[in-house]
Amino acid sequence: MSVIDTSQWKEFRIGDLFEVIRGRSQTMRMLEEGNTPLIAAARANQGVAGYYDVSPEYSDSITVSCNGVGCGSVFYHDGPFSITGDASVMKEKQTMSRASKLFIAAICDLVFSEKYSYAEKCNPAGLLEEKVNLPATTSGDPDWAYMDSFMGKILEEEEVAAEQLAALAPESEA
């Protein structure tokens, strides 16, 4: 993919685009195994600490790790999930496509993972004030069409690569 021209991008405050909600503290060792991904303080496995018997609270949202070694790590989760007190969820204030959320999550991950650490933790109030550069329309609004188009191309490339890899894999014997 070619280099992105960011000269027309604009700074946007996270709090203007999202609500930021901190998870509730949960002692994971007290939870029963189950089917709901539980997002916690980690960079590995997209922040998923495990699968537990808890009610999913969110879906189709961006999460931020707010503690631990992965502090500042940002991920998009399309399916249902819950979060611990070591993570926050960014719920969009206006409807955004999956592609736009993936785009914004990638930008936020670049910014937040450089700024926050085990020693410099993030919190919802601080995240609301964070600013990130995003594509903008001539009227100064986020350019959702650009984000959708860009991520659409990335997702297509990923799908083609997965198909090529699958074609190279030896057929399993029955």
Give the number of DSSP strands. 9
Q: How many helices?
A: 4
Q: Give helix and strand order, one letter per element, not per position.
A: EHEEEEEEEHHEH
Stretches with pLDDT under 50, minimum 5 residues: none
Report how far apart the termini are: 39 Å
The overall average pLDDT, rounded, is 91
Helix/strand/pairing class, anyone?
A: alpha+beta
User: How large is the radius of gyration?
Assistant: 18 Å
Task: Give the CA-based shape.
Answer: globular
Name the beta content range: 25-35%
Biggest sheet statistics: 4 strands, antiparallel
> How much helical structure, as a percent, in the residues?
25-40%
Write out the strand line-up for the largest beta sheet, numbering strands in chain order.
2-8-5-6
Can you describe this structure?
Helices cover 30% and strands 25% of the residues. By secondary structure, the protein is an alpha+beta fold. The strands form three sheets. A four-stranded antiparallel sheet has the order 2-8-5-6. It has a three-stranded mixed sheet with strand order 4-3-7, with no helix packed on it. A two-stranded antiparallel ribbon has the order 1-9. The protein starts with 8 loop residues before the first strand and ends in a 6-residue tail after the last helix. The mean pLDDT is 91.
SSE map:
Elements: E1 9-13, H1 14-17, E2 18-22, E3 33-39, E4 48-52, E5 61-65, E6 74-77, E7 82-83, E8 87-92, H2 98-115, H3 124-129, E9 131-135, H4 144-168
Parallel strand pairs: 3-7
Antiparallel strand pairs: 1-9, 2-8, 3-4, 5-6, 5-8
Helix pairs in contact: 2-4
